Amino acid sequence: MSDDKQSKSDQEHDAQLHGRIRESARQIWLAGLGAYTKAEEDAGKLFDRLVTEGEELETRTRGMVEKHVRTVEHKVEDVRDKATGTWDKLETLFDQRVSGALRRLGIHRREDIEALEQRLAAVEEELRQLREGKAADEEE
């Protein structure tokens, strides 16, 4: 009977060990399910928080970028204005130099020639009127 007792005791021990192992496996399984559920909940919250932080960062950086763009646009506008002013001065200086060189060569400006043409037209008109007056005197 001692073998029966030992055998029965071993069987009970094995059954208890089997029960504990089974309970441990169940607890591990349940812990895994709990961890998965918790991770899923936390991942959703984490994702939402990351989206919110991304939106805030985008808003801040957009403002900074727009500020820098405006600064660059103002600088470009200033440079353009300076370049235009410099170009206008250069053009005026060039015109003056060319006009001076043409005068030294005896070539008159368009305005001078137009003024002479007007004076010549006035002289021709006076001459015509004198001729018509002289012709009228001769007929009498």
Radius of gyration: 54 Å
Number of strands: 0
Q: What is the CA–CA distance across the termini?
A: 183 Å
Total count of helical runs of at least 4 residues: 2
**Average of the residue pLDDT scores:** 82
Largest sheet, in brief, is: none
Number of separate structural domains: 2
Query: From the helix content, strand content and strand pairing, which structural class follows?
Result: mainly alpha
| Parts with pLDDT < 50 across at least 5 consecutive residues | none
Helix fraction bin: over 70%
Q: What string, H for helix and E for strand, traces the elements in order?
A: HH
- The backbone outline, from C-alpha atoms, is rod-shaped
% residues in beta strands? under 5%
Kindly describe this structure.
The structure is a single chain. The longest helix is centred in the middle third of the chain and has 103 residues, at 2-104. The chain is rod-shaped. The protein has helices at residues 2-104, 110-139. By secondary structure, the chain is an all-alpha fold. The chain folds into 2 domains: 2-107; 108-140.
Nutshell version of this structure?
The protein is mostly helical and 140 residues long. Helices cover 95% and strands 0% of the residues.
